[in-house]
Amino acid sequence: MSTPIGRTRTRGVETLSLDATGTRNALSASLVRALASALADCAGDADVRAVVLTHSGNTFSAGADLRDPPEPDALVGLLRQIVELPRPVVARVTGHVRAGGLGLLAACDLAAASATATFAFTEVRIGVAPAVISLPVIPRTDPRALARYYLTGERFDPAEAVRLGLLTAADEDVDAALAPILDGLRRSSPEALAETKRLLTARVLETFDRDAAELTALSARLFASGPAREGMTAFLQKRDAAWVV
Q1: How do residues 138-167 score in pLDDT, each as one tens digit?
Q2: pLDDT of the residue at 239
Q3: CATH topology of domain 5-174
Q4: Of 2, 121, 198, 231, most Cβ neighbours within 10 A?
Q5: Which spans of this chain does the record mark as coiled coil (predicted)?
């Protein structure tokens, strides 16, 4: 039976690859479950020093799978799992990242992208809001810069993603950018890494504790709304939504 998550390991670094290329690695219920399971395995394996989250194909993740979406609680759980994992999680991006995929990116501790990557918070264009993914996104980004892309759904490039705080580094060669990062993690005490990560993620986890229930309810309400039905139908039919002027 095929799995949407590929796994390899090199010198203590476990690479998890989103491999559902037929759906552009959209966050389906099955992909969310498989990624959560793989992350749990990494958390319980003392030989894993760090986790790299990457992808097959030209898209890191297209966001929520509109045909098989995960429950909002499941997505919240996955994002929190990445933030709480007692190993650093590093995103490696060489393609497009949209909507919910940016939640995955923001949940990671470090993130690097190649020059071919593009980014967009497209929720407003299909009649919903970036509700659940705001849990890791808002605490880790510049609020004034973020407002433009949350409100317009515009596409932006890796340099802008670095300025926003979504990326640690951007380079023509993403692996060249990641090499010193992974070398540093391999040279660090696993116990010290875990405690240092706890310091860095405390404010993000406060946001989860305070806002997760409210944002989960908001996401469920918006996805069941009339504007969302129109927006998703328009997206699937490759046409403008009715509100476009």
Answers
A1: 999 999 999 999 999 999 999 999 999 999
A2: 96
A3: 2-enoyl-CoA Hydratase; Chain A, domain 1 (3.90.226)
A4: 121
A5: none
CB atoms within 10 A of CB 80: 19
Q: With 0-12 CB in 10 A as exposed, 13-18 as middle and 19+ as buried, what is 65?
A: buried
Are the C-beta atoms of residues 91 and 53 closer than 8 Å to each other? yes
Q: How confident is the model at residue 130 (pLDDT cuts 50, 70, 90)?
A: very high
| Strand ranges, E, within the chain | 5-10, 13-18, 50-55, 59-61, 89-93, 96-98, 110-114, 118-120, 155-156, 169-171
Higher-confidence residue of 72 and 11: namely 11
Domains of the chain by residue range: 5-174
Amino acid at 122: T
pTM of the full structure:
0.96
Which residues have C-beta within 8 Å of that of residue 203, sequence separation ≥ 6? 139
Where b means 16+ CB within 10 Å and e means fewer, 108-143 reads bbbbbbbeebbbbbbbbbbbbbbbbbbbbbbbbbee
Residues with Cβ within 8 Å of residue 108, at least 6 apart in sequence: 53, 82, 89, 90, 91
Examine the pLDDT at 198 and tell me if it is beyond 80: yes
Alpha carbon distance 156, 91 (integer Å): 18
